[in-house]
What does this fold into?
Amino acid sequence: MIDYVPVLLQIAFAIFFAAAILITSSILGQRGRRPAAKDIPYECGKTPEGNLQPRFSVKFYMIAMLFILFDIEVVFMYAWAVIYREQLANGLTILWAIFPFIGIFFVGELYAWKKGALDWVTRPQRRI
It folds into this structure.
């Protein structure tokens, strides 16, 4: 338990520091001194109209999740390859350790394939 004392002290200091900064900011901050015109968004010299947040397609989020999936896969596979190369005596044990990871990755790939996230065919635009 004594080994965890520095970590607990660092967590306690981080919480205390964050709370102190927020409290100091709210006490010393310039609340209510700005005119309301300074707080509205500015866009090309005109008052913004309509929805400020554009809607994104679900396809965008699927591509983002696939990027994260591939990114994590590359990071773990690289680390595994370095360890596998260094530990040739335990090669078979390390080799079997990667199979659950590859299985989970393969299930993620199948899910993305079934959902059509890997379909890069662009559909023609309708003419108006």
